[in-house]
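Notes to self after the Tuesday call (sharing in case useful).
The group wants a holo model before anyone commits to mutagenesis around the pocket. I volunteered. Ligand is guanosine-5'-triphosphate. Logging inputs and output together so the record is complete.
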Amino acid sequence: MDHNTPNQAFNTTHLQAYGWNEHWEAQAQAVNAANNTHRTLVPARITAQFSHVYRVITNEGERLGTVAGRYQYEASGKGDYPAVGDWVMAELAPGDERVVIHALLPRKSAVSRKVAGSQPEEQVIGANIDFILLVNALNQDFNLRRIERYLTAAMGSGAQPVIVLTKADLCADPESMAEQTRAFIPDSVPVVVVSAARGEGRERLAPYLGQGMTVAVAGSSGAGKSTLLNWLSEADRMRVQDIREDDAKGRHTTTHRELFPIEGGALLMDTPGMRELQLWHADEGHEEAFSDIAALASQCRFRDCRHEREEGCAVLAALDSGELDRRRYNNYVKTGKEIAHQARKERIDQRSKERRSGTTAGRPRPTAKQMRSWEEE
Ligand SMILES: Nc1nc2c(ncn2[C@@H]2O[C@H](COP(=O)(O)OP(=O)(O)OP(=O)(O)O)[C@@H](O)[C@H]2O)c(=O)[nH]1
Ligand SMILES: [Zn+2]
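Result:
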């Protein structure tokens, strides 16, 4: 049987639980049609990443994988490497625990950060996310500006942001807080109130937790992300605990996964990078979050207009005429300054880290020797 006959469906019975669908089938077929090697490639999804080793789910079950030497050779930067949530095409050698990743299927969305360094590079911290839940607590930490910043950070990714206001049980009037939030952000962004600790409001999250949907969770420390994740994956966690109890030696029988299916068929993504998502994506998101101001700015007389007191500034004119809300303009300016400040801070942190460790930014590329030994394994 010719391994790369186009249109021959892949066997993906088990991958469907990880979000496989017709879209990915078509992408995978395209890779297969272009595959002019002797290798048989099958689809797989990245469920965890440990430096340069990946955990992947294949139709044959879970495996560890590394990228092929040629993949590494052809990658033009960190952004080309697989990340959690990515669909890849891999070679599965029978009886081998390791798979070799040969191709990345084009991403539908990517949350990424810029890795500062001598040459700033994009590093993807989560791919193919449908919804990104931005978790905020309804207690004294509640802060509309922070919500706006997270929103800005998520905006350029291609994933749909959803504001989740949690700890509703600590708030006298959660609905009015939700209304305040809605008034502050674009209409297209849903705002959902829950109490994860009390298990209240799951039905409000249901629209974002459908079969095959990939859902990431981000928010500042203490906002309630773990509690939310545990609540949403409760049934699953129980199953894991049952297995643990069955294990007479009391060993840890759970494996580290950063992408896992929950009851109802959604896939939750919980990676350290996503948790820390803050202003990383802000540069690209800023324009989009303030697209109304960006549109005005395109009409300013000077291309480098700072919209402060320049002649022929369309933004200032809109402020004067009342077309542009002053509060929104102030947010735009303030967020822009914060982004610049954060970027400076990251550059400084990164430089001092580099000085300490003598290495360059980010994940080290595997050496050619390492790559050979993996491929031989
Ligand atoms: N009352 C109440 N407390 C909550 C709720 N959700 C979380 N908490 C509490 O808030 C604290 C922080 O919650 P976590 O879920 O650990 O927050 P996190 O966002 O995962 O924090 P990091 O791990 O630091 O990123 C814990 O003490 C939780 O018990 C809630 O819905 N109601
Ligand atoms: Zn201007």
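Two things stood out.
Residues 166-167, 169-170, 195-197, 219, 221-227, 275 surround guanosine-5'-triphosphate (ligand 1) (CB under 6 Å).
Residues 307 and 313 are 6 Å apart (CA to CA).
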